[in-house]
Design brief:
heteropentamer; A alpha/beta; B mainly alpha; C alpha/beta; D mainly alpha; E alpha/beta; B: mainly alpha; E: 3-stranded parallel beta sheet; 16 strands; 42% helix; binds adenosine-5'-triphosphate; binds magnesium ion
Chain lengths: 238, 310, 242, 291, 379
Amino acid sequence: MLEIANLSLLYGRHRALENISVGISEGETVVILGANGAGKSSLLKAIAGLVTPEAGSRVMLDGKSLIGLPAHDIPETGIALVPEGRGVFGDLTVEENLMLGANPRRARATEADRHALIYDLFPRLAERKRQMVRTMSGGEQQMVAIGRALMSNPKYLMLDEPSLGLAPIVVTELFAALKRVQQTGVALLLVEQNVSISLSISDRGYLMEAGRIVGADTAEALKTDTAVQQAFLGGSTA
Amino acid sequence: MTRTTIGFGLIALALAALAFLPTQLGAYGVGLLLGMTGYVVLASAWALFSGPTRYISLATVAFFGIGAYTVAVLSETLPYPLVLLVAGLIGLVVALVVGLATLRLAGVYFVIFTFGLAELIRQLVTWYEVNVTGTLGRYIFLPITAEQIYWQLLALAAVTLGIGWWIARSRIGLALKVIGDDETVASHIGIDISRVKLSLFAVSATIITLVGAIQAPRWTYIEPAIVFNPTVSFLTVIMALLGGANRLWGPVLGAVPLFLLFEWLSANFPNHYSIILGLMFIAIVFVVPRGILSLGEDVMRRFRSRELRS
Amino acid sequence: MTQLLDITALTKQFGGLTAVNKVSFSVNAGEIVALLGPNGSGKTTLLNMISGALQATSGTVALEGDIISGLPPNGIAHKGVSRTFQLVKILPSLSVAENIIAALAFRPQPLWGRGARDQAEVLLDRVGLGGRGDEHADELTYIDQKRMELARALASEPRLLLLDEWLSGLNPTELRVGIDLILSLRQSGMTIVLVEHIMEAVRALCTRSVVMNVGSKIADGPTADVLSDAGVIAAYLGDGNA
Amino acid sequence: MLLTALISGLVLGGTYALVAMGLTLQYGISRIMNLAYGEVTIFAAFAAFLLFSTFGINPLMGMIIVLPAAFAFGYLIYGIMMQPLVRRSAKSGTLEVDSILATFGLLFVIQGVMLITFGSNYTSYNYLNFGVNIFGANIAANRLLAFVLAVVIGATLFLVLTRTRWGTTVRAIAVAPKSAPLVGINVNRTARFAFALGTMLAASGGVMVSMYQTFNASMGVVFTMKALVIVIMGGLGNLMGALVAGLLLGVVETLVATYVDPGLTLASTYVIFLVILLWKPSGLFGKAAGR
Amino acid sequence: QDRTSVKIGYAVSMTGGNAGGAGITTIPNYKLWVHEVNEAGGLELPDGTRLPIEVVEYDDRSSAEEVVRAVERLVTQDQVDFVLSPWGTGFNLAVAPLLDRFGYPLIASAAVTDKAPEFAERWTRSFWLLGGGADYAGALSEVLAAAHASGEINGDVAIISVADGFGIDLVNAARATFAEAGLNIVMDRTYPPGTTDFSPMINEAQASGADSFVAFSYPPDTFALTQQAQVASYNPDVFYLGVGTPFPTYLAANGENTEGILSLGGIDTSNQALMDYRQRHTDFIGQAPDFWASQMTYAGLEMLEEAIKRVGLDRDAVAEELSSGTFTTILGETRLEDNQLRDLWWTGQWQNGVFVAIEPSEREGASAIVLPKQTWQAQ
Ligand SMILES: Nc1ncnc2c1ncn2[C@@H]1O[C@H](COP(=O)(O)OP(=O)(O)OP(=O)(O)O)[C@@H](O)[C@H]1O
Ligand SMILES: Nc1ncnc2c1ncn2[C@@H]1O[C@H](COP(=O)(O)OP(=O)(O)OP(=O)(O)O)[C@@H](O)[C@H]1O
Ligand SMILES: [Mg+2]
Ligand SMILES: [Mg+2]
């Protein structure tokens, strides 16, 4: 169980998150919806330890607090992040990026299996093992980023707009792949603009606005919620 | 508009005062002013190009030395103003060649390239003197006093700051900033990167050459080891960075205190100069993270915001 | 209808990899053409060759009959080509307005001083950033940076505008605003080539689509036809999106 | 004659490469532009001399003392001086400028300490200063040793960096320090380690140099600049590059001295350096400039 | 006048590229002299009173700009009574016009220049104690010519020189005087300062067949040449090296292998005053003086001391006295000719751990040269 409570975050004087409370059970998939600048990425970064929240904020994993844990110790706890803008190691090869993904100790045992899984999910990566990631197309780099996160054998995988810049067919495949990831028991925390497809694989969803959670419901309910329709689905299930 | 006029008026007054200063000071004071003004011009001229583009050039001493050597070679054959002109022209030509060569380089590659270039020029001058003219050291017996050198440097400083002021307000200044931020964007919005970089580099290098030429008569004896001393390049960079290289007054605010610090330390702690200087330097880096000018601005800003609140 | 852009047998090789392979197509003035294709099919590379960011290995790009391939990016920009980048490129040390003024100041008929400031405000208004010129460019949100980048591209008054996934990352509401903005550009007579993976936008905006796969052109025609093409569905759209 | 020149050139180059490799670690990996690098080299040279002349410990044995001390020193310096700068620059992105300014200060501090403890005189001693015949070329044993050390260290580190997971993490922090925590890399610890390792290499260079070269407390900057030239010529952060560039410089220098004019040796090394940069703007083994 | 001390100032290179030379030749002598004078109660004035010396010292950091300013500071800020000379030819020339303008005497004890006569005329209060390149080269050519005449060596000479003012002065003079002396220069190479690998030049010299190897070198090069000649088993009959050879550290580093090596300078071991000075220097500084310019530096200070004793602190009078007086110094009876010290030892040789003077050979106190140089000993 990953529990976030009373999470607040300041960038200088700008309040990016205010009293956020979100919970994800093991194996569950949760999507966070919200306009640009609502604070979705900030929330994921705070969980990953990349930004330091205000005092009084709580991030608990299976009852243990993650607050104060340095960012580089987070992957070891089983939380992985595919960040906005990918954050791949541009001057290293695909293979090296994946190898680094398995850097946390918890990932070592399953490394070989994971490699196979990832090359199965993204055959393009298997073809380009030795290519410098910097020289790959935007979508290819996104695959590397997701692959790298999966390498760490996460229990909770956070994805920040994974479909960004991917061809439709790849988006379909990616979400199919994410479904398979779900089946391996990994919980997903998803931030997406592609609302319909993300709701389709989610159990629950949260709505964010200006740094606050303004709504939460099951995915089923959100799909038909008129407010959500208005704000995020453009009135129709396009 | 009026504020600019007042600003110019004040600056003219300050210049007049500075020009008048030598009459109030002894030889040592004049020497101090002279050295300080020399570095003010060097740092300001350096920052003309390197500030906005963030290309850290260590070729300063190459141009400085070229200027000094030109004077040493020609001082007996040409009238002094002409010598300066020739020195400036040589500096300009070398700068254009160097500028063309370095266009493709970026970051630290540019830094070390310019260092290598300065060393190469020094080696070539040495080799030429040894093998062609057969004398290495040269003598300059020009009847130019320290005051006169100082006045020339002061004028050059005014010109340099004037150019800096003009650039900051002109399209070229904006182009330089854009280049410093992102060259791809720069070229895609229609900036001819090569031309902008080259012309600025040439202007900056010509001024630096003139500093070398103007200061040369002070030494009587010149040899490559003296006028191509890489320390000059390093000090220039350090002063400009310390003051804030992308502001008009930044280099001045770096050069003056640093020069005085050097002077004070060498006058008072000749035996522990290195250690004290080093420690102070480290302290400065930690206390004044974004250059002296920014420090001043921060203080001002805090002051103003407090005023607003009250 | 006059032909504005003409691409002939354009090829780009990176070492052994042929990223763009003898692609030819042309774009009429006033058209909005979508450039589609799977990830890594060479779309960005193609745009890069048009804008001069990359030199073509072979083939030519012509603008109203003028060969522009071989010119440096600034030369091409002065011929009337502007673009945005797949990963936004802002000028982080400048203010939002200065980002635009920079482009105004270096277009063929430069604007400077008062005129530039006013025009920058007009452009910012147009992309929805009115009144925010004094903010620091690097403190804008992603979407606002994209808006600013578009305003910067528009500042050059291009004849041809290249948009590389400019609409990606927008939520559906924002997407609609974005689509309207691009439509308004067409109304003003601009020709646009856009790379996009969001089919909703492509359908709404583009009369014609060109589809690439593994560096080669596999389809070219009216958008509706292209998107129902079996080859395109297999390579790009997938069955679910057909 | 040519063979002799080539061999002595390679050996000379090896001694250059040895000093340069530490800098490529410090600058390429830890992103610290360390202007005080040469001072560490000279300090180690003095230490080796001191151990040899007063305690009779030969320089090779002396390394057992000097190298760990250098590592510890580098570790300490990074912790005290560089870490705050790195932390600060995470926001402002001014690490390069800050590290230039800070290590410029450090340079003076170390130099001042040396001036006070060792004086400003030239120092020199003889150790392993006899000729060894290699394919007809007469090579000083101490230089040969430095060459061997350079090749061994260079090859070992290169293999470690490219073939092991640990090595890959080290390169990762050089490539994208911001992303490194996402895969569980402690950037600070890794950078600190690389910096200390670089300091140790600088010191090993110093110990070797002390055997065949005269040195004094003011000479550090000569080593820094030579090392920088080699590092840049080889491509930043690339050990193989540093090794190859060092060897190349050595060979060029010797060939020019033998066949052209000793007066042009330094000029020719700079010409080679400049030409290589013009041809490959990011060094021999550097990443192709990302345009 | 109720002064309580005599202020003496100097600016020398304590750091930077010139620190190595200044730290051996100049600074220790200034310190020793001040110490000794003050031990004795101070500088003696004509009326027999003594005033202690107060020192103002600056580091010129091996920068020409800095040395000029430091001297200006000494004169106008600190208002010292006398300024001692900096180390190095260029730096002495840089301060010469300045001191002349302020009316201060300059006793240049660490500057080698052929233009000394011209400078002495231009700046009438300047004194030049170390001769010019032509003097040293001329003396060397006589040494070599004599050895050649006696059949000890062939007439071929291999010369290398450092590409800076000093090296070039000497090699230029050597080219002229060697030819006159019937010597044949078979190799003539110039290398840039900072060169560390001399093996190509040593190989070439070895291949040239010359019996004499002459290097007009600077300290780091001098040390390197010695080491690398050993590695190459290069044993010419005559092995002549430049600055640095007469340094005590040279002996410390090379021990027995110094035997027979020639260089500039040298001492007359029969001169008791000199040997006494060397002992005092060693005791006070903890290190012996060098065998070349140290003694001239110290002698220059003695002359200054004596001149003050004779004529007081008036600088013009002191300059006049230095110019015309005769002094007893550690060098013996010392007198300047046209403001220059001409009674110098031009060539010396390491013999049994002492760098003895051998040229001018007819001058009293000269040792006999020993040729050929012994072959290198394994260490
Ligand atoms: N490093 C930062 N410094 C200052 N402000 C920031 C920083 N990062 C984000 N912000 C601000 O915090 C707010 C939330 O940003 P965040 O990136 O979390 O939003 P988001 O919901 O992920 O938006 P998007 O959909 O555009 O990715 C925004 O207003 C943004 O401008
Ligand atoms: N500088 C480069 N060096 C080597 N290969 C490159 C370089 N730039 C691009 N490539 C390769 O060329 C191919 C085309 O890349 P491009 O960026 O044009 O794809 P794209 O169609 O824009 O894809 P996406 O939709 O994912 O952005 C890719 O396989 C990429 O890896
Ligand atoms: Mg986000
Ligand atoms: Mg693309």
